[in-house]
Amino acid sequence: MAAVVTGVRRIQVAGESPYEVVVGAGASSEVVAVVGAGVRRVAVVSTPSLGGLSGAVLGRLAAADVDVHLVEVPDGEAAKTAQVAAECWAQLGRLGFTRSDAVVAVGGGSTTDLAGFVAATFLRGIAVVHVPTTLLGMVDAAVGGKTGINTAEGKNLVGSFHEPVAVLCDLLLLRSLPVAELRSGLAEVVKCGFVTDRRILDVIRADPGAVLDVESAALREVVERAVSVKGRVVAADLRESTGSGSSVGREVLNYGHTLGHAIERVEGYRRRHGEAVAIGMVYVAELARLTAGLADEVVDLHREVLESVGLPTTYRPEAWGELRDAMRVDKKARGDRLRFVVLTGLGEPMILDGPAEDALVEAYARISAES
Question: pLDDT below 50 — which residues of the chain?
Answer without folding.
Answer: 1-6, 371
